[in-house]
Fold each of these.
Amino acid sequence: MSQREQKKAEAIETWNFVFPNQSNPYGNMFGGELLAIMDTTAAMAAIRYCGRTVSTASSERVIFKRPIFVGDRIKTVAKVVLVGRTSMMVRTDVFVDKGGDEGDVLSTTAHFTLVAFDDERNPAEVPELIVETDKEHKHHELAQQIKAHVGRREERIKHVVEKWS
Ligand SMILES: CC(C)(COP(=O)(O)OP(=O)(O)OC[C@H]1O[C@@H](n2cnc3c(N)ncnc32)[C@H](O)[C@@H]1OP(=O)(O)O)[C@@H](O)C(=O)NCCC(=O)NCCS
């Protein structure tokens, strides 16, 4: 039996200027626009990690902590923090670049689960994640808790989902 590859995850950063057409009527950045940037950056991180094409299976625990305004510069940082056999959970943080003493201010955090595919679009095995630093352990543990929580939630609502599907 071949040994599963082990790998460290790389943090992927994307930068954006927030344009007026990305805002809601009150001048805040529209959440859907932000999620598109976060999902795309998460996909980049997952692709770099597994070297395959991927699709987003779910997004969890999206926390819009501080608003983002038109004209803000935003930095989105995504990194694989937990893997299953074919899926990867990617923590994605968005910071507003305030400059000066304030620096980067955390605005939004979400966890996306992406699935890797082979050439026939069947789920394909991803490398095992190497978790080393304190920060990586912290993020890994949070991701495990989110995954466990989602599992319990799905179990609780299973009968409703079955009834209405
Ligand atoms: C994501 C998708 C491939 C999963 O297909 P599936 O038939 O459930 O595949 P499997 O049962 O083999 O599961 C594959 C992996 O996905 C995970 N998965 C499936 N559905 C999931 C969900 N809703 N949330 C989190 N993980 C999920 C499984 O746990 C499994 O992970 P593991 O191998 O690490 O244990 C399929 O539902 C799909 O193609 N969805 C559409 C994706 C899409 O269009 N996204 C938006 C644009 S990118």
Amino acid sequence: MKTDGRGLQIFCPQRMERSVTEVTVEQLRKMGVEAVLLDLDNTLVRWQGRDIPDTIRKWLQELREAGFKLCLVSNARFGKRLRSLSTELNIPYVRKAAKPSRQGFHNALKLLSCPAHKAVMIGDQMFTDVWGGNRSGIYTIMVEPIARREFIGTKISRVAERLLLAWFRRRGDI
Ligand SMILES: [Mg+2]
């Protein structure tokens, strides 16, 4: 396993994709996955957005119909938007997950009654989604952010993210 918890490997996603929609039901089934944990901002919707793109809506529906358990794991502070998107999509959520803390991931797995090794985490950020997922023993898939607009702190962390991704690529880790 690539992420053995030593050194920088804890930041390395197991897989990278352009969008969540690249992750197929068939692939997840082959992996023996039961639960899919999802970041919200810039993974499913634009940062602070409320509109779910049709392609993503359709993808979520496919996953649900295939029997996967889903949960939103977000650091969002504004519970109202998260709550309404959760209701609209009919997907439960963990709020103030404080990623990369393990707590939010732990809560999500508990909520879905799923062990870490049967879950995947999909998100657009290395230092929250990927790091937290890896620390929790969850397979991590990093996707490209939906839009460029994001929190200023995120823009700063993108610099380190890019450097690490280049390093992982050189090593052949991803
Ligand atoms: Mg995000």
